[in-house]
Every structure is written in C-alpha cells, then in structure tokens.
Specification:
It is built from eleven helices and 26 strands. The protein is of the alpha+beta class and about 525 residues long.
Amino acid sequence: MNVATRTILACTIALCTASTSALAQSSLNGYWDLRVPNPSGDGTFLDTYFQLQQNGDALSGQLIRWHHTTPIVGTVKKDSLHFATQPPASAPRWEQRPIVFDGTFANNHLTLSLQRGSHPVHAVAIRVTEEATQPPTPLPLPALHDVPDNGLARTPPMGWNSWNKFANKVDDASVRAMADAMVSSGMSKVGYVYINIDDTWELGRDAAGNILPNKKFPDMKALADYVHSKGLKIGIYSSPGPKTCAYYEGSFGHVQQDAATYAKWGIDYLKYDLCTDLDVYNDDAPTLQAIYQQMGDALQATHRPIVYSLCEYGRANVWTGWGEKSGGNLWRTTGDIEDNWQSMDKIGFSQIKIAPFVKPGHWNDPDMLEIGNGGMTADEYRTHMSLWSLLAAPLIAGNDLRTMTDETRSILMNTEIIAIDQDPRFQPVTEVSHDGDIEVLMRPLHDGSVAVGIFNRGQQASTGSFSRSSLPAGFKGKTLSVRDLWKHVDASINGDDFTTTVPMHGVVMLRIATR
Ligand code: GLA
C-alpha cells in the first residue's frame, strides 16, 4: 500500500467512524469495494472498486479496474448519494457503458443499487485496500516461433456458442440441452458439431493452482462425456489475462496448467479472449503473437486435438500472419456482434477486403451468428447466413436451439448455403459491383461453379442485377445452370443479365455453373 493510499484509508476510517447518518463534508472520501454476487448464482463475486472524494454535496472520484480508471461524478443529498461513471472514448470495450449508482450511507457502509445488464443489483460497499486495483507484473513471454499446424478446421468450424443468447446464464443443464437440440433439430447432420461454453463458467483456483468451474458446472468431465456421447464436440473459453471479459478467472500465469486441465476434461475447442491481458501487456503484433503462441504450444503439448480460436477483436491485423503463426485455427477480426442490422451489416461487409488472408485451418472470424435471436428480420438473417458463408466464416450459432422457429431452422440448416461456407477448396469472395444499396459478391467454388450474392443494403426493396460478363473466363459462351439457393429452385439468366428484386436488407443467392 503506498503512503498516499494509506493516508486516505486512515482518514476514511476516522471520518466514517465519526459519522452515522448525515453526510459530513467529506464522509465518503476513500476507497470502496462493492462486492456483488454474480446474478447467475454461480457462487462467484464481482468486485467493483471505486475511490470517492466528497466536497460538500459534490462527489467526484474514479472507478478502478487494474490500471484503468474511469471518472465518477455525482451528488450527495442528506444521507443519500448518486453517482455515475463517465467512461472516456478510450475506455476498454467492456467499460464503455456508464454505470449509475444510487445509495445511502449509514453505519460506515454505503448501500448501493446499480443496474447490471438487465438486473438491478443492491449491495453494500465496504472500505478496502487498493490490493486488487493493481495489474499484475507482466510475466516473461516466450521467444517467437511458428506453432505447427494442428491439422484441424480444414473448413470453417461449425457449432454453437453460449454467449449471444445465454451470456452469464449458461450452465451444465443448458449446455446438455443444446447438445440434445443440436442432434434432434438435425443441425448435427448438416455439419454443426461444436457445443461451446463461453465466459462465466470459472470459479477460481485450488491450492495447487488448478482452475475450478463454478457451481453452474459441477462436473466438467461428465459434461464433456455427455456431449461426446451425442457424437458432438465440446468447447470452452478463457483469457490470457488475469480476468476474462466478464471478470472471471483467466489463465494468466497458468497457461500450461489450464491447457492440461482442458485436455483432461476432454475439451475439443478453446476460445481464448484477450480481455484484461491488455492491462498487462501491449497490443503490438509481436506481443500478441507471443501471448497466443504460449497457449497454442500448450494446447499442442496436451496431444489432444483442440481447435484454437483467438479472440482479440482484430487487433494488430491478426489476419496478416501472426494469428496463424501462434497456432490459431480462427481469429476474431472485429469487435462484438450485436443482434441488429447495423451491427451485422457493418461487420459483415467490412470483411470482404480481408477475405483473401485465410486458408484451410486458419480462418477469419467476424464473430458468432445471431440468427434466431429475434433482433433482425428473416431477410436480415438470410443476409447474415449468406454473407458469413461467402466469407468462409465459422458458422457458430448463438441462439436457443430448443426453441427455433421453422424459419430459423431453414436459415441455419440451408445445406445449399452451408455448402458455400464449407467448400472444400477455399477461394476468397470478391466484390463484383457496388451500385448504391446493391452489392454483388462472388466466390469461386471447387467444382468450377461460382456462388453469387446480390445484396440489398437499403431500406426498401430494390432491383439488383448480375451481369454475365462478371463470370470467370471459363463461363464465356457456355450454357449456364443457375440455382437460387434460398428459393431452392433452378433459375435462368436471360440475355446478358440476371435481374431480380431483392427485399430490403435481403439477398438473392445463386450458384452458377456451366452445363
Ligand atoms: C468478449 C468476446 C465475446 C464474449 C465475451 C465474454 O466480449 O468478444 O465474444 O466471449 O467477451 O465475456
């Protein structure tokens, strides 16, 4: 504890002890810890540290996480107080939303309410030391080398992940239910195989440093066995940082040990999310490569085939080489997707220029699917599925597989679209034309045919066309067969152009071959 902090704490104790209800000029001065049980009831706690400074009825201070501090501004009225964080534009993604606190002060305690996601949280804040506010000292990183290709993910991985729908509510029962539903819905028959647990499964570590699941996951090995018994594979999540993005236990200082634990449990896929590692190390390409290489090597040392999914939000142009060198089978190229048109459209169409940077075993990941989560229209979800397939993106569903409508099933299980995504000879998508709201993309396929997507990014139905002259040279003068991949009917190109009406935010997907 440094001298300044010690002084503030001593002063806080004195002032707090002197005050019981009415708030004196500086009663609230000091460092506080608001310890809140995680709302999912998993037996873990989330600590929110803040430092307050009271000046009459004005409050200022900062919320503290590692070395990120977010300014706090508020007011005091009699014995009640109100304050909110004011995140600067440079705040890490997971701290960009202001947090609003309301509360009272009595008997040396702050009783506060805040909104966490959709949950109102009421808890007591106590005076703390600054202990947990300091980022750990960086550990030495390994010298760089190329991690050998693990031979996995020859086509983009397909499966399901808990985050988009369940977030911190994921538990053993829901994972088993998703495995059941992946089989009973027929998804497993069309290629979906991974059932991936995202963040919030972690508790902490035992005395020997082994990672422990929290009470939502009583027996990880038994769960993996169950998922395997369905003919499926199971994935898990961690961070190279001390904490995950939801502030659960990360793998910092335990990389090899955690990889060995995953292998012991029977894990087949790891999503490794940068999160608080950014508080410990820089985010230049060589540093990120070393961080991810460490886990890449650790996974291979287990001798269990484990798909390695890098989650670093596209930092340091991961697709240009370091993602593959660190052993990654896929790497996130963007921030988090949300279940709305703006988010999906922005992410999806920004990916075309980096589509050539991938190859079998090493894929760009523009984030998981939102299909079926309710925030977009069926046409928008068809665009989502078509675009991800043209990009050769991983198809990781993010909805509740138990309650899918027929429409959602028809989108996620359109085998003619999945075949584009999973084409066995990867060739990248290119933009053929971009005229106002109409954007036409084309991707060559292994059998000499091409997939063509005519997208309408506008707010109303519009005419879109695709010109014969845009086809590769081998198509010249040939009779063409044209298949509409959403209507599942054969179509035709009359004359030089294929012209069609494309619904608002919708797509017409074609597969064109020579006869
Ligand atoms: C980050 C990732 C998400 C999800 C959450 C979990 O935001 O990008 O995909 O894994 O963390 O906390």
